[in-house]
Amino acid sequence: MTKKIRSLSMRKNYIMLLILMVLLIIVGTVVYQKVTALLNRSMEQSVARQIADLSVMAEERFGRELASLHLAADYLQPYETTEQKKFFDAMRLNSIRLGIAVGILGLEGNIIQGDPLKESDFPRLSMAFRGNDVIDYHPRHGLLFAVPIKDQGNVQCVIYRLYEPSLLPDQFSLSDYNDDNRLLIMERNGHIIVPFKNYDENDEAFFRDQAVIDGYNRIRTNLATKRADAVYVETEQGRKDFLFAADIPHTNCSMVGFIPWEAVAGNITHINNFFVRVSVMVLILFAIVSLSLLIMQSKAEQSEYLVRQKKMAEKANNAKSAFLANISHEIRTPINAIVGMNELIIRESRITSITEYALAIKQASDTLITLINDILDFSRIESGKLDIRENDYHLVTLLRNLYFLTQPRFQKKNLQFDLHIDEALPSVLTGDMVRIQQIVLNLLTNAAKYTAMGHVDLYVNARSSETPDTVILSISVQDTGIGIREEDIPHLFKSFERIGIEENPTIEGTGLGLSISKELATLMHGQISVKSVYTKGSTFTVELPQRVVDKTPVGEFSPLLMEAHGEQAAYTESFTAPDACILVVDDNEINLKTVTHLLKKTGVRIDCCLSGAEALKKISETVYDLIFLDQMMPRMDGIETLHRAKELPNARNVPFIAFTANAIVGIREKLLEEGFSEYISKPIRGRELEHVLLTFLPKEKTRPLLKSRKEEKETQGESCVNKSGPGTEKVVFNPSTGLLYSDGDPALFHELSDLFCTLLPAKQAELEDAFGSNDFSRYRIAVHALKTSALSVGGERLSDMARSLEQACIRHLDRIDGEKAGDEALLYIQNNHEKLMGACQELEGVLRADPEKSGKN
């Protein structure tokens, strides 16, 4: 009961204080308005007095114009002598230069001398023939000044001067009297004669405002009894101005204009406003303080209860976050063990049913791990412990990861998955690649979940940012799935909410994926947006600012950058070119032998050399039609050799074709930029070699073979290729691969195998020397060459090991992925060098024993 009475008393006090505060505000407002009105009337009178003085100045400006005409009229009366006519001609010539018309009219209105003038255009002109000075205005022709020329007191003729409308602002503008005033001269019928300078559309709109029109109407009424008048107006746009006008004596014109209210009020207004507002604020402050005391009394009774509730809520929230984090980690440990053991079962089991069970376990384990990761990320975000770790990363790596991680899911559902990558994207960026990959994978996974048929497209591009060296990376996932209802879109990014669960009850998920993605994008100063049409599909777009490290474009992106080990017909030549001469430069003798054998039936004359220095010597001695140049050679690499060769007279117009084993995105653009005409990736294939020769050799030096002969050779060649599908386990020796890179020619294959065995000890010695001296730049070049030559003779396992060591050298030398990754790469080299040497001995033993054996481990 006591609590209820206290509540009623507090409510009554609140109402009383509210009423008092409202009354004080009303009284203060009325007082302020009264004082402002009195101040405005006082300022109107002050403005009117100033304008009356200014109108005299305008009259004087017009008077000076009439006075100059009077001087001319006095000299010209009577207008008869030759000297007077010469004077007028000089006066007229000077006026014409200024764009002013001058003339003398007879008593009948006829033109005696000068520019013609229609008397009907200026009704007041007739007064000049009666001996009066005239100022008149015509909207098209301009402002007219006219005075009579008299002879013994009788008007003989009239001299006039006419200013075109375009000249009036410069000649008669009054704005320079006061920087705050805006003055113009207007006929009493409302035509503006002389606008002020910089008169524009805003000023026209001001004069069309109804409040301004009404103000000037009041002024015109008052001008019947006053010389000048001024009124205060407020326009619909909230402008406050004083309008004014004053008649200009002896004319049908008035000087009108306006001046901002602030310019007139000045410090007086500021002082008045200060005292009025301070008075009102004191009264309001009194009311607020009284109200605050009552509110504080009321809140004091509730504060202790609210504090307890807040502490309990925070404690419960922290406990929940801690539990989610702990349980996620606890579950992850046994799940990792399950996944690992299950992977061993899949690899080692030869029983179909067991393998099927293991694959089902793998699918369920992957789903469970995804759910755990979502819960763990969510708990980290809630507790503020999720960090964004920015590092330099290659955009191609991100794109390739996204493709290979999601492609199996799309293949399983028979969905077409296409990538649309902007070739101008910078190749190296700074950001958290792991989190970006997590966001996009979640979007792609959702697209696969909710798309039953059709396709999913990934669009990647970038736009410039306001910050230098930064771009906004934009990644969009577009699908043809079930879409999202418009009313469901606002709920998409809320935690634990799944949209469309009624229509798709079998789709797995926690409802956290999009929420986490949005939070991650926000932490990276980006955003996620969605556009969707229900039953038609959706497009999710994530935009993230990323710093540009390397502006080199990524070029044409292909996720499948690997040598073709699949089915391929043997190459047979389709042309001859006995008059052509080419140079092949490569530090690998096997590559030289391969090119020579592949082209021997074409009749092309071929010179070979093993170094850049030797190539420069040959180029200076011989004019070649085409030059093949290995990109990576010791001492002088292919790019340096190219630049030096281009300075030689014999090579300035010769096409250079690069040999390279670096089948990475953007390598073609880089080589073309350096000056190469094209490139061929290693191992060298006959069809690519033929295509380049037919493209760049002079047309007059190539002749096609007869079709029947070519078809016969292709038929014979096809039987030489032993097909091996993708995914074949790497073996010590695969004769099918060797024949593939010998284009089905067994003789060439045996010759290359013998040459490989002959050169192998020297290559091993070079590798040992580079490894022992920690010269990993030279080691990289050596394993790069070994990678290609081993694959050319079917040594798949050795080639694969050399490829891995080459990549480790790159990571160690360039530190692309950071210091830690570079150190790990060095450890990998140290742990696998001896294995590489063993693989060399193993392959050499197989080749020397029988080059055509089956290639089993």
Short characterization:
The chain has 857 residues and is an alpha+beta fold.
Can you give a write-up of this model?
Helices cover 52% and strands 18% of the residues. The protein is built from 21 helices and 24 strands. Strands 11, 12, 13, 14, 15, 16 and 17 form a seven-stranded mixed sheet that branches. A five-stranded antiparallel sheet has the order 2-1-5-4-3. The chain has a five-stranded antiparallel sheet with strand order 7-6-10-9-8. α6 (261-348) packs antiparallel against α7 (352-383).
Radius of gyration: 47 Å
Question: How many DSSP H or I helices?
Answer: 21
The helix content, as a percent range, equals: 40-55%
General form: flat
Quickly give the structural class. alpha+beta
Q: Give the uncertain stretches in residue-range form.
A: 560-571, 707-729, 851-857
Tell me the major beta sheet: 7 strands, mixed
Euclidean distance between termini CA atoms: 95 Å
β-strand number = 24
